[in-house]
Amino acid sequence: MNPLTPQRMHHDDFGGLNRDLLATGGVLRRREALRLALGAGALALLGCGSENGVTDPGNTSNGICSLIPAETAGPFPGDGSNGPNVLNQTGVVRADIRSSFAGLSGTAAGIPLTVILNLQTAATCQPKPGAAIYLWHCDRAGLYSLYSAGVTNQNYLRGVQAADANGRVTFTTIFPGCYAGRWPHMHFEVFESLAAASSLANRVRTSQLALPEATSRTVYATSGYATSLTNLGGVSLASDNVFGEDRAANQLATMTGDATAGYTATLTVAV
Questions:
Q1: Tell me, what CATH number does 221's domain have?
Q2: How far apart are CA 113 and CA 254, in angstroms?
Q3: If phi over 0 gives left and psi between -120 and 50 gives alpha, with beta otherwise, what is residue 190?
Q4: What is d(CA 62, CA 65) in angstroms, rounded to the nearest whole number?
Q5: Is residue 7 part of a domain?
Q6: How far apart (Å, rounded) are the C-alpha atoms in residues 31 and 24?
Q7: Count of domains in the chain?
Q8: For residue 207, which of 130, 126, 270 has the smallest C-alpha distance?
Q9: Distance from C-alpha of 157 to C-alpha of 115, rounded to nearest angstrom
Q10: Where are the alpha helices (DSSP H) in the chain?
Q11: 221 located within any domain
Q12: The model's pTM
């Protein structure tokens, strides 16, 4: 199934991410904010930390990590750039993104999937503690919440998390379906901090995560994913119009687990 025409939602003012920050103790004091601002300025001077300021090193030698490729957010981002905006909704900061939030109800069904994103600074390969990720993807039928017909009253499979002391961000979700014309994937945007993630203007990178073929075929052979198995047969990772053969190496997740207990997808994200 192909996601359909975007529709603007009216569930866009529940206090926003700022209320989430208050609830989680994440409001920055003036002194801390100044420290982060100075740090961001230093990164800009070094040529890293923004999409326009970083040149892809292309290797991992000499302490330099390959920059995650910049990709389109697609037509269904839910970040305010094309209609709905979950970044200003209370409850968007969460580890488990399977259910809708901010006054909406419903839970996405599918094979359990844990997504682990290890955030690093491309110039040094060092972890980026405190940086934040906004992750979103389609459900097992290939539909995007807030946009696709039948799920415009849902905002599940979308959420924001801050990296821990090791630069790690972890989400609990479901294995996404495969819709016609695209390889199985997830979208994400990187921000310098949780506070910065309240506005799309603050993003430093937009990219996508690719899921391996073998795991995808195993999942799509289970109940509820039949259409995805058919769609997967019409596309390859090399022919995908986003990943392609030359870019997928830095975006293909490493998988562990099984279809019974669930899977874990791990990806290093250098920005």
A1: 2.60.130.10
A2: 12
A3: beta
A4: 9
A5: no
A6: 19
A7: 1
A8: 270
A9: 12
A10: 16-23, 30-46, 213-220, 226-232, 244-247
A11: yes
A12: 0.80
